[in-house]
Amino acid sequence: MKLIIALIQPTKLEAVKEALSRVEVFRLTVMDVQGFGRQKGYTEVYRGHEVTVNLLRKIELQIAVNEDFVEPTVNAILEAGRSGPDGKIFILPLDDCIRIRTGERGPEAI
């Protein structure tokens, strides 16, 4: 089992969700996050003062998958989420998973 964490541009969320549906990945968690990376932010004028905005809005997806779904999931995110200079995919080992409703554990719980 793996936990896939992907940071994408907010404008790419719908395309990524559609691509994941095509590879039969339907369960994911979506979070609105802010981050600072290579883009280094931008400067804007607010009430006559120049303000540097260096935390940019991103979307974080968390997707727990069994081994067979790792590559299709990653490829779907790459295909639909490719944009600009930033965005990341992290693949982490997932030691265990427990479905609260039934108590199932491991790959069956995903």
Protein described:
The model has no long low-confidence stretch (mean pLDDT 91). 20% of the residues lie in helices and 36% in strands. It is α+β, with helices and mostly antiparallel strands and 110 residues long. It is elongated. Strand 3 and strand 4 form a beta hairpin. The chain has one domain: Alpha-Beta Plaits (2-Layer Sandwich). The protein contains two helices and six strands. A four-stranded antiparallel beta sheet has the order 2-5-1-6, with helices on one face. Strands 3-4 form a two-stranded antiparallel sheet.
In short:
Helix content is 20%, strand content 36%. With 110 residues, it is α+β, with helices and mostly antiparallel strands.
Q: How do the strands line up in the largest sheet?
A: 2-5-1-6
Oligomer type: single chain
Mean pLDDT across all residues, rounded? 91
Number of domains: 1
Name the poorly predicted regions.
Answer: none
Question: Structural class of the secondary elements?
Answer: alpha+beta
Distance between the termini: 9 Å
Radius of gyration: 17 Å
CATH architecture: 2-Layer Sandwich
**What spatial form do the alpha-carbon principal axes imply?**
elongated
| Range of helix content | 10-25%
Order of helices and strands: EHEEEEHE
What is the highest CATH level, the class?
Alpha Beta
Question: Approximately what portion of the residues adopt beta-strand conformation?
Answer: 35-45%
What's the topology here?
Layout: E1 2-8, H1 13-22, E2 29-35, E3 42-46, E4 49-53, E5 56-65, H2 70-81, E6 88-93
Antiparallel strand pairs: 1-5, 1-6, 2-5, 3-4
